[in-house]
Design a protein that fits this description.
The structure holds two protein chains of two kinds. Chain A is an alpha/beta fold. Chain A contains twelve helices and twelve strands. Chain B has eleven helices and five strands, in the order αααβααβαβααβαβαα. Classes of the chains: A alpha/beta, B alpha/beta.
Chain lengths: 319, 285
């Protein structure tokens, strides 16, 4: 079987949304002037339910809220640092806060996780959004690792009368999961490999590289496990905690700041609550901005979470 | 009936309506002061400037609403974007049947849903308010949805003048004319004072009407305490659907009806003592 070519999470979602819009006139699609090849078709097919609000993320969320309060199901698209930070208070008040009192079905498509826009520099890197969105109650936080999962999120998202933040990688990526895979968005994670000593837990596009390491490094089979975490909240924390208890060493890997409440914050809390002797190493971006205009692989390595860094740490625990 | 008699009847009707609305506004002002007495953290001066606007909308048969079904599909949507300055809507909502009037006596206490800044916990309020600059954009979204489903209801947004300093307001001011949202009416409670000073001394808003017009809004101005003028212009604007969003600049006085507030450029944060409230209520009567 030939695996399909590379695809972006954004295109998978937009194609899925467009298919749903054909049958459901309550679905709207708004963008803050961010485009995509798949969006060209959607805006051609649904001119009355597509709206470009201009480069105005605050209004993107506000207009989307108004539509959602009228019972529409709304997707809003923008660049990750701007969708998460330019309009943080709009997300807090009109989505997280208001949705506690009234249904607000909005899905934010936040494109450009981590270093996706690597050469654009630190203004376009999204290293804070996981931690920021985790601070908000009532908000669902989705961080898919491939486009199959991203596309599968659309029907789930339409069925949930809640606000959701989707942290989407900006680059075309291969698939990890087959089309028929049944994702459990309430559980929120997949175990891609089991082991008995070191547990790796990653999110987003990083899962690809980590999975490759796990599958190709001699001596890791049955010893090193890999969890792909895709729902940060809500999710089955007890089930995840039970998985973590399989290991004596946990390593979190995220393309975001470490020590600020992202993936490592979630895992650390579950480990502490378990009262077990488990070590946690956090791989990610140390607390500084990167002005280097390098490739994504270069930036990851510069931050100390290139494949060799991860391999060395795992090997150390396997000795 | 002669033309003269018909004209006289119309004038009599107008006088009746004006007297009725003025009496209601006076009652709303008194009740608002009583609420402030129980809940001194409420923003009294900001809440007194839109009293006539609220009174005319709810008692002048301009707003379509049903307290038995707060989110009825055919209701007109009123968003109070200047949430902090809308405590004066509490007595009206209670009076028209959204909740028991007894609730007014325990506003601001732990048992009450009537806080200093209203949200949809208070029946009759659509959105979370008071954090400024959100209401107009949300109203734009509602207006788009209503038009799409051919729902004839209107969206009204009440905004303060100080709120116009928020950049998000201007994002929405740009969008509404582009989408020809003529089912949207923005009412600016133009009381000329923000928190620390007169707007004219902070950053000038004038020429405000020209700003709206140049953005493509259908703009009218009115004395925001003249119930008859308010009734005439709001009735006209709500009905008007000419492809443009509408804005009514209502010239008001912050702290209207209470001389010690009216004279104070810092009245926004002013808390009145019990004796001051008592004196103000007596002066109104």
């Amino acid at each position: 079987m030939t695996l399909p070519s590379l695809k972006t999470m954004r295109d998978a979602i937009i194609s899925s949304v467009a298919a749903k819009m054909l049958k459901d006139s309550s679905i709207y699609f708004l963008t803050a002037d961010l485009g995509a090849p798949s969006l060209d078709q959607l805006r051609h097919d649904f001119p009355d339910r597509f709206m470009n609000v201009g480069i105005a993320e605050q209004n993107l969320i506000n207009v989307g809220t108004g539509l959602a309060l009228e019972g529409c199901r709304v997707f809003v698209l923008g660049i990750a640092p701007f969708v998460s930070m330019r309009c943080f208070e709009q997300i807090r008040n009109n989505l997280a806060l208001l949705s506690q009192l009234r249904p607000v079905n909005i899905t934010m498509l936040s494109v450009g996780a981590g270093f996706s826009y690597e050469v654009s520099g630190p203004t376009h890197h999204a290293l804070e959004d996981l931690a920021l969105m985790r601070t908000l109650p009532n908000l669902e936080l989705f961080s898919p690792s491939d486009w199959v999962m991203a596309g599968a999120f659309v029907p789930y998202s339409l069925s949930q009368p809640t606000p959701k933040y989707c942290r989407l990688d900006g680059k075309p990526l291969p698939r990890i999961y087959p089309d028929s895979h049944a994702f459990d968005f309430h559980k929120g994670f997949e175990v891609l490999q089991t082991g008995d000593r070191v547990g790796l837990i990653s999110t987003g596009s990083l899962t690809h590289g980590v999975l490759e390491l796990c599958q190709n490094t001699p001596g890791w089979r049955d010893r090193v496990g890999l969890i792909d975490l895709f729902m940060f909240q809500p999710m089955d924390e007890t089930a995840l905690q039970n998985q973590l208890l399989n290991y004596s060493h946990i390593i979190t890997i995220e393309e975001g700041f470490t020590g600020k409440g992202g993936l490592d914050g979630l895992v650390n809390r579950l480990v502490v609550q378990s009262r077990q002797k488990i070590t946690v190493d956090a791989f990610g971006v140390p607390a500084r901005y990167l002005f280097e205009a390098g490739s994504r692989a270069y930036l990851r390595q510069a931050c100390g979470f290139g494949p060799d860094d991860i391999r060395r740490t795992v090997e150390q625990y396997l000795r | 009936m002669t033309v003269c008699e018909s004209k006289r009847d119309q004038e009599d009707d107008r006088t009746l309506l004006r007297n009725f609305l003025e009496q209601k506004a006076c009652w709303v002002r008194r009740e608002t002061l009583h609420i402030h007495q129980i809940a001194p953290a409420t923003r009294i001066a900001s809440s007194l400037s839109p009293v006539e606007i609220f009174t005319v909308l709810y008692y002048g048969h301009l707003l379509h609403f049903d307290p038995a079904i707060p989110y009825s599909a055919d209701r007109d949507r009123l968003i109070i974007s200047k949430g902090h300055g809308s405590v004066s809507l509490y007595p009206i909502l209670a009076d028209v049947g959204y909740f028991d009037k007894q609730e007014l006596k325990r506003a601001g206490t732990v048992e009450s849903f009537l806080g200093g800044i209203p949200d949809p916990m208070v029946p009759g309020f659509e959105t979370v308010n008071g954090s400024l600059g959100h209401g107009l954009g949300v109203g734009c979204g509602m207006a788009v949805a209503l038009r799409h489903t051919k729902n004839p209801a209107s969206v009204l947004v009440l905004m303060g003048d100080g709120e116009l300093y928020e950049g998000s307001v201007w994002e929405a001011l740009l969008l509404a004319p582009e989408h020809k949202l003529d089912n949207l009416l923005l009412i600016v409670d133009y009381n000329k004072i923000a928190m620390l000073d007169y707007c004219a001394k902070i950053i000038r808003l004038e020429p405000l009407g020209n700003k709206f017009k140049s953005f493509g809004w259908d703009c009218e101005e009115v004395d925001g305490h003249d119930v008859e003028a308010l009734h005439t212009v709001m009735q006209k604007l709500i009905k008007r659907r000419n492809g443009q969003p509408k804005v009514l600049i209502a010239h008001t006085v912050k702290g209207k009806g209470v001389p010690l507030l009216e004279k104070d450029s810092l009245c926004h944060l002013r808390t009145m003592s019990g004796a001051e409230v008592q004196a103000a209520v007596e002066a109104l009567a």
